[in-house]
Amino acid sequence: MLQRVLTCIWIPALLALISACSPNGVEVVSETDEKQYQLAQDFKNQGRTEEALSAFLRVIDARRDAPESHLEAGYIYLRTMKDPIRAIYHFERYLQFKPQSPQASQVRQLIETAQKEFARQLPAQPYEGDLERIDLMELVKTLKQENDSLKRDLVAAEKRVSQLENVLGQARRVPRPQTEAPAVVRREQPVRTDGGTATPDPEDVPRTYTVQSGDTLSTISRRFYGTPSRWIDIFQANRDRLSSENALRVGQEIRIP
């Protein structure tokens, strides 16, 4: 009999202890008992609004559900910070957590007030005469969608311009098609001072070559010397004709040292 009585006393006590603890064995503290929440209320009562807001936001960051902190943050954003968009966000979060609370109707009115405040902040107050007939949040949503669409169009246009610039640059580098002339390699005959024709020394007389389509100094060097590495010799021999190593023109005659 005594054991049964003890059981009746012990089991409710155990259940009460379990209900006061979270699944991880950590004591569950209500939002309004949070140290940061109480600190925020102290700051608010002292007129230290920004510090109060920071403390309320810390409660929101630390908890999954913090409707009272959302409500307080919404008040501060609307009344003190004059930031109706953030105020609307926190008021709507409050309604998500407590849609049937006694304050829900008042919070919905605060959302309408914040919407009107947002409209008044727009340039030239374009909606001042029709505030009651405008769904401002739908307007904000529409403008944001249009802005995102314009950003995507701008990115696509910039990409297209870049592609066209690349195509134009490649077209400028391609030489105009010309009738390919046969390669001409001839030896220049030195003129004797006495009026006769001197017998040239093959090692001293430079050869000439007519540039073909697709030629580079490296390919010409390979053609005559069997290696592309002597392109610099060809370039140095034609400094009076070539402004750079890439300045070859089809049909141009160059010296082969």
Automatic annotation (TrEMBL):
SUPFAM superfamilies: LysM domain, TPR-like. Coiled coil: none annotated. The keyword Transferase does not apply. It comes from Coraliomargarita sinensis. Transmembrane segments: none annotated. Keywords: Signal. Residues 207-256 form the LysM domain. Residues 1-25 form the signal peptide. Residues 172-207 are annotated as: Disordered. This is LysM domain-containing protein. It comes from the Bacteria. CDD domains: LysM (cd00118).
